[in-house]
Amino acid sequence: MSRVRVLVGTRKGAFVLTSDGKRDRWDVSGPHFGGWEIYHLKGSAADPDRLYASQSSGWFGQVIQRSNDGGKTWESKDNKFTYDGPTGTHLWYDGTPHPWGFARVWHLEPALRDPDTVYAGVEDAALFRTTDGGQSWQELPGLRTHTSASSWQPGAGGMCLHTILLDPSRAGRMFVAISAAGAFRSDDAGTTWRPVNRGLKSEGIPDPTAEVGHCVHRIAMHRSRPDVLFMQKHWDVMRSDDAGESWREVSGNLPSDFGFPIDVHAHEPETIYVVPIKSDSEHYPPDGKLRVYRSRTGGHEWEALTKGLPQSHCYVNVLRDAMSIDTLDPCGVYFGTTGGQVYASADGGDSWAPIVRDLPAVVSVEVQTLP
Amino acid sequence: MIRVVLPAHLRTLARVDGEVKVDVAGRVTQRSVLDALEAAYPMLRGTIRDHVTQQRRPFLRFFACEQDLSHEPPDAPLPDAVAEGVEPYLVVGAMAGG
């Protein structure tokens, strides 16, 4: 029977949650790296026991950890993320030029077919890559040196590159998203980039339809249709059917179109999930009800999924990297909250139960489906 | 032999218990002690000093012999008691709470 392994990054350590395919009884391991912020952990699709973790601290900076045995043991790897060449400036919150400076790794994306190759999205926004399993990291500077980069500005959480999507069917095509610069696409394995934000509208920037400057919170794709992208923006849920060339809003009947994560069902490419949050200044669910919303039509028409989720006095947030999908049938959906709960649904979102209730604030959730 | 006391999180990262002892060839300074420490424990590179600038990370302090040496020049000699192994060189995480 297949198994699942849920990798949870929190403000105070990492946790590994495992279950068989029924997904009703769980073993909990952790905290790993207790006391450190774990922004993201992710396993390699090519070697599921190869895991990478971004461990950081305001005191001690960035550490990269690697496991070769599914999270039982870890070894620290190279933590030197040095921008390639002159760093230049981006805009600071007050609109003045501010020199680029490395703060932390937000997201680690292992390559689809090589467990030693991993992409790292960092703050201040840039893309790095290792091809030796984390022994060394090199920047792919074409993104940070894009002609628009001097006009990029941080979102409230920092100017972070938080989303990396690798096209499984077109070699060299990848997407990234940066808060608050927007979405970018490369068709040459990260050497050159161009903004793909046409159709986005953001009232919080001087030109609401500008080429860059949009606070994209998350992008998701289904591996069978990599030209179809779904986006949770600061406000608005968006969809592109042409690999980001153009976007249209699909917020439909959501109670709020503000939120952070978005994800796609493993077997139904038109079924997507979001977690509406009340507003950009009130980061909790509308009406104190924690509801995942599911659209089976690729947007526009949404249904609230509430069974097993708190429907009163709930004021947690669900951060951008804190939702994930397994590939079992029926498909499992997972998300973590800033209140320390990790919820799982083994039936595509129809019903939910907490795996754990009292972890530190959850930053990221990734699930692996194991043989 | 120079004695170095690390904060708990860095002891865990370096997989050591208690004090760390490092050999320093030549002058015993903050720079030479930290260079020796990072050579012996490469996983500590970047966690005490910035990789590029070699500046002390802002929320760390360096103490020895009941003195705060955090703002001393990195190539200034450390107190004789540290150089002779009588007193430890302390890397301390700045207090935070509330």
Give a written overview of the molecule.
Chain A has 371 residues and is mostly beta strands. Chain A has two domains: 49-214, Methylamine Dehydrogenase, Chain H (7 Propeller); 227-237 and 248-371, 7 Propeller (Methylamine Dehydrogenase, Chain H), CATH 2.130.10. Chain A is 0% helix and 41% strand. Chain A is built from no helices and 30 strands. In chain A, the strands form eight sheets. A four-stranded antiparallel sheet of chain A has the order 3-2-1-30, with no helix packed on it. Chain A has a four-stranded antiparallel sheet with strand order 4-5-6-7, with no helix packed on it. A four-stranded antiparallel sheet of chain A has the order 10-11-12-13, with no helix packed on it. In chain A, strand 12 (126-130) and strand 13 form a beta hairpin. By secondary structure, chain B is α+β, with helices and mostly antiparallel strands. Chain B has a single domain, classed as Ubiquitin-like (UB roll) (Roll). Chain B contains three helices and five strands. Chain B has helices spanning 8-14, 30-40, 80-83; strands at 2-5, 20-22, 60-64, 67-68, 89-93. In chain B, strands 2-1-5-3-4 form a five-stranded mixed sheet, covered by helices on one side. The radius of gyration of chain B is 12 Å and the shape is globular. At the A-B interface, strand 6 of A face helix 1 of B.
Question: Structural class, from secondary structure content of chain B?
Answer: alpha+beta
* Helix run count of chain A: 0
Q: Averaged pLDDT of chain B, please? A: 95
The CATH superfamily of chain B bears the name: Beta-grasp domain
Outline the low-pLDDT stretches of chain A.
Answer: none
Strand order of the largest sheet of chain B: 2-1-5-3-4
Q: Helical residue percent of chain B?
A: 10-25%
Q: What is the name of the CATH superfamily of the largest domain in chain A?
A: YVTN repeat-like/Quinoprotein amine dehydrogenase
Low-confidence stretches of chain B: none
